[in-house]
Amino acid sequence: MKTKEEKLIQYLFPTKKKNKTTNDSMDEKQKYDRRLLAFLSSDKLDATLYRRILLQIPTKIIPRMANPLLLADFLTSSYETQNNASKILALHGLYILMTQYNLEYPFFFGKLYSLLTIDIFNAKYKARFFYLLDIFLQSSHLPVNLIASFAKRLARLSLLIPQHDQCLIITFIYNLIIRHPTIRIMINRQQTQSIDSNKDIYSSKELDPNKTNAIESSLWEIESLTHHHHPDVATCALTLMSLRKKNNERDIHQLLEIDYDEMFEHDLNRSIRSDKKKDKTKNSECPINFNMTVSLFD
């Protein structure tokens, strides 16, 4: 038998899909709002349930509410008090409230910008983060200084991150430039100074992405990656630096889950295919003996 608390949790945060959840009457939605807020303000939230709630807010909880803006305080508090994984989920909920329910939250992109650190590439939620970041930066109405700051921060990180993530970041910047052509000047601008982060006009320590001077800088970091030892990374960088106005965005979803093992297997298969093209008569397996033996004691 389920306890009252378990039944309440199942009612508020169902694990299975419910039919016609958005067709509840206004009275039912208001009742849901009251019970939800009372539960969120209680001390019954463990880490697992907390994450489950944040995951369900955009798709399952908000559609059942009469006034989704009531979640604003909970989501803001979640960003301030939880770990980075929960912060990302909290920002997703806030983004829904901003774009669909007219919530005013001027610090959103500043908080998002602050999450762009080297640690994000070693976290298990990396794929979700960049999936959501791609959504957050889609609007064509975002200020050019802000978009330039994200592009520049990502470019700077591309020099420090694991090799298997570099194509993801380069492609992400590529798509940003396609969506926001104004920042194309960061490609076209010639770097008169030496490639030295200390001489770059971009202020990497500035917390406000609207004040980093990124739009006055260039993407010299991507230019340096055109000489990368790995052909995939070098090709991605060259593609970005030679970007044309009529180019289309590229799909980043297949790059989100790539790791070292997958990259190694890809390189190995490419090497085998290359050997086959050079000489189709030769076996692609690695030789272990110069002369084929006839018998064991020959």
Automatic annotation (TrEMBL):
It comes from the Eukaryota. Residues 88-237 form the CCAAT-binding factor domain. One of its GO terms (cellular component) is Noc4p-Nop14p complex. GO terms for biological process: ribosome biogenesis. InterPro entries: CCAAT-binding_factor, Noc4. Belongs to the CBF/MAK21 family. This is CCAAT-binding factor domain-containing protein. It comes from Rotaria sordida.
